[in-house]
Amino acid sequence: QVQLTESGGGLVQTGGSLRLSCSASGRTSSSFTMGWFRQSPGKEREFVAALRRRGGYTYYADSVKGRFTISRGNAENTVFLQMNSLKPEDTAVYYCAFDNSLILSSIRVREDYDYWGQGTQVTVSS
Which residues pair with residue 72 across a beta bridge? Predict the structure, then answer.
């Protein structure tokens, strides 16, 4: 089992910044993938960004590329999502996702992640 702890959501004005963090504990491997998905009312949960521990490769949705950055923290199993130039359409509940052995083709597929955080609300006011 893996437990995920998220923090960092909140309310910000358009153009502002927020940083989300996610820490994984429990039975983690050396080749995990940690990602962020988001869901707004009436919409499906969508991929935002992901990081693969092995090699440090990062992946982004087109809608956030150039504005959001996913990175590893100093702690082994912690990732951050730095969100800059926020827009009202970024408003959603953001979920951290984790998998110990995700294949590359599944990076953006929410059904393929085994573990999820509780979600943190991000609200961007216009």
Answer: 79
Cα 67 off chain centre by: 14
Q: What is the largest CA-CA distance in the chain?
A: 41
In 10 A of CB 30, how many CB atoms? 8
Token representation of residue 95: 């979920």
Answer whether 6's CB lies under 8 Å from 119's CB.
Answer: yes
Angstrom CA distances, 2 to 44, 49, 79, 116, stand at 24, 20, 15, 9
**DSSP assignments along 50-104, one per residue:** EEETTT--EEE-TTTTTTEEEEE-SSTTEEEEEE-S--GGG-EEEEEEEESS--G
Residue 39: its pLDDT value, please? 98
What does the radius of gyration of the chain's CA atoms come to, in whole angstroms?
13
Amino acid at 56: G
Residue range 72-102, pLDDT digits in tens: 988 779 999 999 999 999 999 999 999 999 9
